[in-house]
Structures are given as structure tokens and as C-alpha cells.
Amino acid sequence: MTVHDFTVRTAEGETVSLGEYAGSYLLIVNVASKCGLTPQYEGLEKLHRDTADRGLRIIGFPCNQFGEQEPGTDAEIQEFCSLTYDVTFPVYGKVEVNGDDADPLFRHLRSAAPGDFGPEHGFLFEHVSKSRPEAIGTDEVKWNFTKFLVDPDGAVVTRFEPTVGPDEIAARLAPLL
Description:
Largest sheet: 4 strands, mixed
Radius of gyration: 15 Å
Keywords: Oxidoreductase, Peroxidase
GO molecular function: peroxidase activity
Number of strands: 6
Oligomer: single chain
CATH superfamily: Glutaredoxin
Family: Belongs to the glutathione peroxidase family.
CATH class: Alpha Beta
Strand content: 15-25%
Number of domains: 1
Helix content: 25-40%
Strand order of the largest sheet: 4-3-5-6
Mean pLDDT: 95
Low-confidence stretches: none
Active site: 35
Order of helices and strands: EEEHEHHHEEH
CATH topology: Glutaredoxin
CATH architecture: 3-Layer(aba) Sandwich
Number of helices: 5
Shape: globular
Pfam family, one: GSHPx
């Protein structure tokens, strides 16, 4: 199974196939609008604008599982993204990324790229160690703005933890695009 085999719900409630991204690299991000990392939207949008014509697509999935930092409706989230960060990449419907109700796409992403989350992630590691110690050492998404890179064939290549920003990702992707 590849990422292209999954369907997702848009913010408007429609279902779309991720197969439409076949042939492009895909950066899948769980996002939130009331998080200390929310300014990453700006960098993600810049990355989107700088690389879309070279084969990278970015898609966001709002999630309210981390400190209830994405409490809005899908419509409110769309408005926030547009007005606050001029986001033009797709931000789909709100999902859960962990637990029994985790979206099947995120179960697949987590399994394919369990991550390597440790003390090198500084403040976020300290925060997660205190607020969600059960997540340490698991494949769970640890916090908002975890990013998964998918290759043009739909295979999960790697996972970028939340502290890895869009500029660093851009540098790592430059040779691929």
C-alpha cells in the first residue's frame, strides 16, 4: 500500500484521492493554528511557492490532539490560514493522527516512518516528556507540525519532527527537486 491509495476529506466535506499527487513529492503536515509552531505556516507557504513547479506538493491536516491547539471548525481553519498566512497549499479536513480514531493515512505514515524523537529536539522533547510521556519511544506523532515526505511513487521517505523547520527541509529537498 502507498500513500496514493488513500482518500482524504477536504475542508468542504468532499472525498479526494491522494493518487492525484502521483508523480510529485508530497510533504504531509499535521497543522494547528494556536500552537507555538504555527508560524511554520509562513515557511511552509514559501516552500510551496518556491517548489511547486519543481515537483513538491504540500498538504496540511489540522489536528486538535495536542493541547487543543486547533479548536476551530474546518471553515474557521480555512479562514485563519488564508487571512493570517496567505496559505495557498491545500489544508484538508480536521483529523486525528494518534489513537483509536487516527485517520488511516496517519496510521500508515506513522508505521512507515516511526520517527527518531529524542533530546536533540530540545524544548519540544522536554515538553512532550512532561505532557505526553507515553508517546516517547513510540511511532505516535509527538506534536503539531510533524511532517512526512512521500516520494513520487507514494512511498514514505522520511519523517521530520516538529522542530525541523521548512527552511531546513528546503535545503534537504533541493537535490531531489
